């Protein structure tokens, strides 16, 4: 093999890229033609459909249980007083119609003892009410 020319000048190597590009294009065409796009794994989802608006009677009701600073309990407009958990439970069951599962909204004064709020929560749980929430008052300027 002769690497140098007679004059001692070195010839620059030449790399022809055209055959390389041709081979890559043929491979791409082959892959695009032979590839099949099939949906082998599908997840069937049955989306809910909107019905007519619910009548007002079927909307969930809310019952407000207010607790004053001294611990007196009011269910709606009826005073339960400083009764025990059993008294509050009995008042809840007497005031709220049987079979309905309303949301119990607890409105407690800022100076209400925490134990009294827990007593109302326990009475609602024992009476079978599963939805419980708290009402808060926003103070302007904070």
From TrEMBL:
Name the lineage: Bacteria, Pseudomonadati, Pseudomonadota, Hydrogenophilia, Hydrogenophilales
PANTHER family associated with the record: BIOPOLYMER TRANSPORT PROTEIN EXBD-RELATED (PTHR30558:SF3), EXBD MEMBRANE COMPONENT OF PMF-DRIVEN MACROMOLECULE IMPORT SYSTEM (PTHR30558)
- Family from the record: Belongs to the ExbD/TolR family.
Q: What is this protein called?
A: Biopolymer transporter ExbD
Q: Where are the transmembrane segments?
A: 14-33
Its localization reads: Cell membrane
Bilayer topology annotation = Single-pass membrane protein; Single-pass type II membrane protein
Pfam families, alphabetized? ExbD (PF02472)
Per UniProt, which keywords does this protein have?
Answer: Cell membrane, Membrane, Protein transport, Transmembrane, Transmembrane helix, Transport
Q: Which Gene3D superfamilies match?
A: 3.30.420.270
């Amino acid at each position: 093999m002769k690497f140098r020319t007679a004059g001692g000048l070195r010839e620059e190597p030449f790399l022809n890229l055209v055959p390389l590009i041709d081979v890559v294009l043929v491979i791409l065409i082959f892959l695009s033609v032979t590839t099949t796009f099939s949906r082998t794994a599908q997840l069937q989802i049955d989306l809910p459909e909107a019905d007519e608006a619910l009548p007002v009677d079927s909307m969930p009701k809310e019952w407000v249980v207010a607790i004053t600073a001294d611990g007196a309990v009011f269910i709606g407009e009826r005073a339960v007083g400083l009764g025990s958990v059993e008294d509050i439970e009995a008042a809840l069951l007497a005031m709220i119609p049987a079979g309905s599962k309303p949301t119990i909204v607890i409105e407690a004064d800022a100076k209400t003892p925490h134990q009294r709020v827990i007593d109302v929560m326990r009475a609602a749980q024992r009476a079978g009410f599963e939805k419980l929430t708290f009402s808060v008052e926003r103070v302007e300027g904070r």
